[in-house]
Amino acid sequence: MATLADILDLAPGVRLGEEVGTPPGDPIPDRAVQPYRPIRDYALIGDCHGAALVARDGAIDWACLGRFDAAPVFTRLLDAKSGGFLHLAPLRQARSARRYLDESAILVTHFADEGGRANVIDFMPVGHHPDARRHDATRLNAPGWIVRIAIGVAGRLGFEMRYRPVLGLKKMSAPTLACDGGVATGKGVPALHATVPITVSGGEASARFELTAGDVVCFIVAPAAIPHLDPLGAANRLLGTTRRFWQDWIGTCRYEGAHAAMVRRSAVTLKLLTFAPTGAIVAAPTTSLPERIGGPRNFDYRYCWLRDAAYMLYALTALGYGAEAQAYVEFLHQRHLRRKGVHLMFSVAGELVSEEEDLTSLSGYRDSGPVRIGNAAAKQRQLDIFGETIDLAYLYEALGGRLNAGERSALVYLADCAAQGWRERDNGIWEIRSERQHFVYSKIMCWVALDRAARMFGDRPSWAEAQRAICQAVHEEGVINGHLVGAFGRTGMDAALLITPWLGFPLREGVMARTLDAILDELGEGHYLRRYRTEDGMGGEEGAFLMSSFWFAGALLHQGAHDAAAQLFDRMVTKANDVGLYSEEIDPQTEAFLGNFPQGFVHLAVITLATHFELYRSGGSAALAGSHADRAQRHIKGGRLFGPFGRLRDLAAIVGGAPRRSVLILP
User: Fold this and answer.
1) How much is the average pLDDT of 158-164?
2) Cis geometry, peptide bond prior to residue 598 (ω within 30 degrees of 0)
3) 14 neighbors 106 (Cβ within 8 angstroms)
4) Taking Cα atoms as reference points, which of 169, 450, 198 lies closest to residue 302?
5) At what angle do helices 309-319 and 600-619 cross, to 10 degrees?
6) Confidence (pLDDT) at 225
7) pLDDT number for residue 306
């Protein structure tokens, strides 16, 4: 168990400069002047069930507890005037710097002014379930708490705590709070436990206190008031368990190549976006962060997209996380293959996604309304999903996984759907809301569905005929001026075409190289790339898509342009925020983050690109050839990750229990 001394040793100070008399870190803007924090200013904490965003000024402005798509208790991210929050920061104007502890999900923020210095440690407790097997980080316990520990480092520093919980996004009301014995409670909202006296006024609880060196103050947000809780003792114990859990988890990452720190941070971020009870992974933990300030492109990303599946499985297995990959595949089997239907996304518990609803009573981030819950894209027609589903299954089997007869029958059904429906128009990978088109990427993914199905189940005349027809159509209608285009009969480009080299689709010599030139020419803006520039029915504009830059570097690498790809990768690594997180998009002029944050698919692209560089360094261009399954087998050197012939480490997971040091016993 961690001791108070351990807590004090966690962050003795973050020294960012040597200038005498200047506190470290950057000045914190006054919220009276800037009511919204830049998206770049946030850091993510979570417990693999829910998540929260902590701003650089010490405010938690967003939190969904228990599950990612739950009604949020803190919502100031989307409405600065009436949203809920948990504020913990110095009384006087100060500077701050921050970092994650030990490559974990424990955030340490260092505050300083001329009079004193202090650290605030933020985390959501998580650990192994007592019955979990060794190295199985999918059976987890988490009480659904947010823990905040303020520690005096030097001098004297006054702090203020303000707690204003709300009843989700629809009601956005703050219930009247009551205080009893250091616990603030209200109907329908979590309870706040404190080690300092707190006062209550209406829907807000507050406290003021001063920290000198060695002083420790603790606050715990829990789903309900816990009788006789010792907040500091509980925080002390849970901090030790949570720290060891993350040490154990990141310690199993086997990546040691270039930009290892960023790859490992991306791995932790993906883990934080995983819903442990089912294995589902959400696209982002937020909703309605705008793709352009003041614009209407605000969507709910707190769901699990099937499209991410093969890429997610590939990235997790390349890093050595077999248990997470297995859990994710099982989630998709249960919710998708066994239904014999095509569903684009699910809730984290496996339900179909609710209807999209505009909540016009909220102002939205920086007045960028509407705020939305649900997602209308769930009912769109997106033909690429056939290829992504069967490609996932092929990758899973190649790594030793087994599919039952019903699942294999469902895959055959999906291949038949691809063979029969590839000629149809669809909404495409970017989920456009204008008229459907013949997207080239969608056609190529139908070819992928049939190619992988033939490898799994043998050749079938209808599949082979459809494959030939798709190839002919792509080359005749999807290639204009010698390069691929976004849709048949249209000259506009599409960043999704950058994935083509990794799919094994047969292109004529020079087509992909010219496609890269055309994409850069049309979609490039400074160091970044747009997804597309064509009308999509959503109105307004959007920023540059960060994932596209990583895709472009990957396509360069596949073309053998190693140095250019490496330079672009090096540049993009520097575009993360100070704690290594990426949003969905970025403003090419100001480099302000845009869109939901942090974006799992961008971090997935970081991992995929890094592992491709490692393959290239070990085997050259030949090591990059083929499908995801071919490259994954090269990563694990022809072994099996799943099934009875898995690697020895996974055998240990069967016979051994979870490490006792990171087992969390729920309060």
Assistant:
1) 97
2) yes
3) no
4) 169
5) 50
6) 95
7) 83
> 8 is written with which tokens?
């004090």
pLDDT value for 650: 42
Q: Which two tokens stand for residue 389?
A: 């589903």
Asked whether 11 and 112 are in contact (CB, 8 A), the reply is no
DSSP 274-291: EETTTTEE-S-S-B---S
The 3-class secondary structure across 409-473, one letter per residue, is HHHHHHHHHHHHHCCCCECCCCCCCCCCECEHHHHHHHHHHHHHHHHHHCCCHHHHHHHHHHHHH
- According to the model, what pLDDT value does residue 547 have? 96
Q: Return d(Cα 217, Cα 211) in angstroms, integer.
A: 8
Q: How far is Cα 624 from Cα 641, in angstroms, rounded to an integer?
A: 20
> Whole-number mean pLDDT of the chain?
89
Beta bridge partners of 240: none
User: Environment class of residue 3 by beta-carbon count within 10 Å: exposed (0-12), middle (13-18) or buried (19+)?
Assistant: exposed
For 102-151, the pLDDT digits (tens) are 899 999 999 999 899 999 999 999 999 888 776 677 889 999 999 999 99
Name which of 2-16, 371-385, 457-471, 608-622 the model is least confident about.
2-16
3 state SS of 115: coil
The H or E element containing residue 545 is strand 544-545
Q: Cα-atom radius of gyration of the chain, to the nearest Å?
A: 25
Rounded to an integer, what distance in angstroms lies between the CA atom of residue 421 and that of residue 463?
Answer: 12
CA 634/CA 639 separation, integer angstroms: 9
Q: Among 80-94, 130-144, 430-444, 491-505, which is the least confidently predicted range?
A: 130-144
Asked whether the beta carbons of 336 and 343 are under 8 A apart, the reply is: yes
In b/e form, how buried is each residue of 527-544, taking b as 16+ CB within 10 angstroms? ebbbbbebebebeeebbb
- 341: tokens are 């239907």
* Stronger pLDDT, 550 or 350, i.e. the higher one: 550
- The pLDDT tens digits of the residues spanning 521-536 come to 999 998 899 999 998 8
Q: Are 667 and 234 in contact (CB under 8 A)?
A: yes
The two structure tokens encoding residue 474? 């792509």
DSSP symbol at 10: S
Query: What number of residues does the chain have?
Result: 667
371-373 and 178-180 beta bridge pairing? unpaired
Handedness of CA 455, 461, 465, 468 (dihedral sign): positive
SS (H, E, C) 43-79: EEEECCCCEEEEECCCEEEEEECCCCCCCCCECCCCC
Query: What is each CA distance from 10 to 103, 153, 194, 233, 649, in whole angstroms?
Result: 13, 11, 21, 16, 31
